[in-house]
Design brief:
Elements: H1 6-9, H2 12-23, E1 53-54, E2 61-62, H3 77-88, H4 93-100, H5 104-115
Antiparallel strand pairs: 1-2
Helix pairs in contact: 2-3, 4-5
Bound molecules: zinc ion.
The site of zinc ion has 7 residues, from loops.
């Protein structure tokens, strides 16, 4: 059977922007509730497009997943989009893991965490 390279076909930046809208519909705030001024440059671009910001109000460094159920994930934005889609569509963890080439056990613990 043909394996579709779904993750490679998804645009990382577009996936990031979609996740940003889903996770932070009112915009990105630091963990202490300070808004990021429009146009503030990221503090750390090592994992682009998941860039880190440093709050000018309290100095906290954070990114899109800080304080969410996805905090600590090492998946790419494209993988997260497809994982969430799979969960919401009721696909089995085994199916999603195989389709995206991910570790089943790790994905299963993420599923439990996200669906809690
Ligand atoms: Zn702050």
């Amino acid at each position: 059977m043909i394996k579709f390279p779904l993750t490679k076909l998804l645009d990382e930046q577009a996936s990031y922007e979609w996740l940003l809208e889903i996770l932070h519909p009112k915009g990105l705030y630091c963990p202490n509730g300070h808004a990021i001024p429009v146009g503030q440059a990221p503090h750390d671009r090592q994992r682009e497009p998941i860039v880190k910001y440093k709050c000018r109000g309290c100095g906290k460094v954070f990114h899109i997943f800080t304080g969410t159920d996805l905090s600590g994930s090492h998946y790419t934005c494209g993988q997260i989009v497809l994982i969430l889609r799979g969960f919401l569509q009721g696909q089995t963890t085994q199916h999603i893991a195989e389709e995206l080439g991910l570790d089943y056990g790790t994905l299963l613990s993420w599923r439990h965490r996200i669906q809690r």
